[in-house]
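Operator note (shift B, R.M.): manual run for Recombinase domain-containing protein requested after the automated queue skipped it. Running by hand, logging everything below so the morning shift can see what happened. Input copied straight from the record, untouched. If output looks odd, do not overwrite the archive copy; leave it for review.
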Amino acid sequence: MSSLFLKDLAQKTHRGLEGRVRKGKSAGGVTYGYDVVRSLKGDGEMTTGERAINEDQASTVRRIFEEFAAGLSPRTIASQLNAEGVEGPRGSGWGASTIYGNWRRGTGILNNELYVGRLVWNRQRFVKDPSNGKRQARPNSPDAWIIEDVPDLRIISEDLWECVKARQKATRSEVIQDGLARPERAHRPKHLFSGLLKCGVCGGGYTIVGKTHYGCANARNKGTCDNRLTIKREDLEARVLSGLKDQLLDPDLIAEFVTAYRAEFNRLVAEEVKDRAIAERELGKTQRQITSIVDAIADGMFHSSMKAKMDGLEARKAELEIQLQSKGIEPPVLLHPGLSDIYREKVRGLTAALNEPTLRPEATEMIRSLLSEIRLVPEGDTLAIELVGELAGLLALDQTKNGPKH
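Run finished. Output pasted below as returned.
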């Protein structure tokens, strides 16, 4: 019943937003370059969906379009804006993706048609992924879009817009050649430690630079970090894997693991005891309610509503009894005497599996699960690698001991 209500509510909300857009008003959110305008209507209600051009931000929008049309890259534009202290759309720094966005989805400064006085709504819808319960965006077909002219909100000319679109099209054609994507110019393949690499200076991500090296994304895309050191991908992967194999099972780290493991086990046992006590109290209360109803019926005070109440209590009693049966307190876990050997063997097996095409995806996932973060910290003109993981704590690999600077 509740799901039907929510679905009906969502449909009504969507219709309401569509009606607002068809009047040239905002369906929600504040686009960079505009301010929300609120005023009191004759009926005492506040206006909604009204916007006005923010001249300071509008000048930045014009600058971005003009500089891109003149040949500057989004990365260069973002770096210059950050250097001048120009605040970005969310009050933070500018990035290349904030400017370039996704032309298919209409995201990014250069793809927002509101800047030429066209309000486009319903480009995408959100659906729930049944595997993880998260919302994911799905594009709608163009015939489902709602487009309204809002000339009062125009910031740039149609000619400048078309000039930018022409350059974007030319840039995209460089990525596709003979119908095939060129990886070095488009989406790069996911590597063993993609997403785990962090700059030890600014905390930003370390991403692929060119084809073979990793570098600080903030240093290159935003110009907000001074760390310009790079490292070869193959060397980084070899050193991290070596660190996992050779140092992860250091006696001190194993002792730390044992302590953490036992502490976590004790915490889980404590939670189990607490949950069991709560369930037992509720079971006792439920049983007393059942007894009270039975006594009332025996005294001749039966009412038709009692049956429904009794059925609910009996069902809840059965649930609690099943729950308590499954909450048996487990005995203390003894650490396997050969844990070090077993773990070392598994680590060696995982790294070897990286060379097997059929096993590589699973091995990659398991190796990545050993780490939560890989920090690349400048030490002079070299990089030190710090591995952060739930088991190992923090490990440091001195690049000067493992090869030359890259």
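Quick read of the result: The CA atoms of residues 9 and 244 lie 52 Å apart. The first strand starts at residue 34 and ends at 36.
Leaving this for review. - R.M.
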